[in-house]
Amino acid sequence: MRTIHIYDKQTREHLRTQDWTPPAPWVALPADAVDADAAPLPPARAGYARVLTLACDAWEYVEDHRGKQGWLGDGTQHVVDALGPLPDGWSETEPHPSLEEAHTAKAREIRTGYDTALAGVLAGAEATATGVAVGSALMAVTDPDGLEYLVDMLTARRVELEQTLLAAQTDADPVAAVLAMVVSYPT
Predict the structure, then answer these.
(1) pLDDT bucket at 40, cuts 50 / 70 / 90
(2) For residue 53, is it left (φ>0), alpha (ψ between -120 and 50) or beta?
(3) Burial class of 40 by CB neighbour count within 10 A (0 to 12, 13 to 18, 19+)
């Protein structure tokens, strides 16, 4: 009986060690296996995989970060799925957006919040284009002062948020100030 090391066909990573008896005298080794005496296995090391060299005569340690989640240098989220060192520019900390990206996203949030609040006030549960049109027409006929008051109130809040957004850009940490803004409208 011989001891053999079984390795992964693709990565050559050690999978297991087992005792093996050849099924016939002419069978040298199973596929993807190496004799334990010919290539002694080094001890396991945390954070590394044991990988058989191309010559199949020794094992080497290769960094193993598989499953680790982080961000690449370009800011995209990434999960490591292969053996080897971490990609260039790797970070475990989520990157902050640029000031321009944060400003654009917050301005969009302010405008969307305004549109949603106005539609909700005018149409209630029927916040579709038709519902808003019908709701505003009915309110204009039945309570024109109320409609004007609601539109003025929501517009004033939108302007206030837009001014706060501009002021946040002069903060010591403008990106953090922009991201910290809470967009809300009275209902």
Answers:
(1) very high
(2) beta
(3) exposed
Structure pTM?
0.54
Q: What tokens were used for 45?
A: 């090391």
Q: Which of 149, 117, 111 minimizes the C-alpha distance to 132?
A: 117
| One-letter amino acid for residue 64 of the chain | D
End-to-end CA distance of the chain: 80
pLDDT the model gives residue 51: 97
Helix (H) and strand (E) counts in the chain: 4, 7
CA 77, 82, 86, 89: dihedral to nearest 10 degrees? -40
Cα separation, 13 vs 60, in Å, equals 10
Q: Which residues of 47-58 are buried (b: 16+ CB within 10 A; e: fewer)?
A: eebbbbeeeeee
